[in-house]
Write a structure and sequence with these properties.
Oligomer: single chain
Strand content: under 5%
Length: 222
């Protein structure tokens, strides 16, 4: 299909703009450390929290030294700190994952609402990363493609909620750690690949691609 001009670079660009493997892997390390620390410390919350904070700080320091944006790095570290604070406050190890459950539920709702109001968040994220601001919305084909592809992200967030909630309610800490690892990088990779496939299938033949939004037909004719 000759749909999208960025066939060679679009998949890579989409992965990079959405965080890609780097962000997904980084997000799994503190929860994994929490589970290991919790087990090694005799299933105490403090053991898990200390391990998660140490690993989270190490990941943040590594990313900053590698020249990554401080804002995104610090947001990731802040999420670990908030999760640790919740677990310490309640004394329940499973509460370390409460923020993750709420974040996925909120993200699913936000993506769904964005599609309904014709501001699909996938387009917002990619368009911002490409420096397009709102120009992509003036391309009806691209707007439609982002809207359809955004449903992929609604589905992946809902899948996490469906898996996490029963484990959280039954205090299955080890299972929560395993689910967090299994449903982060592999699921993100699948969502990126599937959403890119949806975009390519939706864009008509000859469309210039994500990096070059086409003006509406009535403007092209003038």
């Amino acid at each position: 299909m000759a749909a999208a001009g960025p066939d060679r670079t679009g998949d890579e660009s989409l992965a990079d703009l959405l965080g890609g493997r780097r962000g997904a892997v980084d997000a799994t390390l503190p929860p994994l450390a929490f589970g290991v620390g919790w087990l090694l410390a005799g299933r105490t919350v403090w053991g898990g929290v200390v391990a998660a904070l140490l690993v989270g700080a190490a990941v943040a320091g590594w990313r900053l030294r590698r020249g990554h944006r401080p804002r995104s790095v610090l947001i990731g570290l802040l999420a670990v700190c908030v999760a640790a604070a919740i677990a310490l406050r309640t004394g329940r190890a499973s509460d370390f994952f409460l923020l993750q459950v709420l974040a996925n539920a909120g993200s699913a709702l936000a993506f769904a609402v964005s599609i309904v109001v014709r501001w699909p968040l996938l387009g917002v994220v990619v368009g911002t990363g490409l420096g397009q601001r709102g120009r992509w919305r003036r391309d009806p084909d691209l707007l439609r493609a982002y809207g359809r592809a955004s449903w992929v992200w609604v589905a992946q967030y809902l899948l996490r909620v469906v898996v996490f909630v029963p484990l959280y309610l039954t205090d299955q800490v080890v299972a929560l750690v395993a689910a967090r690892v299994a449903l982060t990088w592999p699921l993100v990779a699948a969502a990126i690949a599937l959403s890119w496939w949806v975009i390519r299938r939706t864009l008509p033949p000859g469309h210039p691609g994500l990096r070059h939004p086409a003006p509406p037909a009535h403007l092209q004719a003038t």
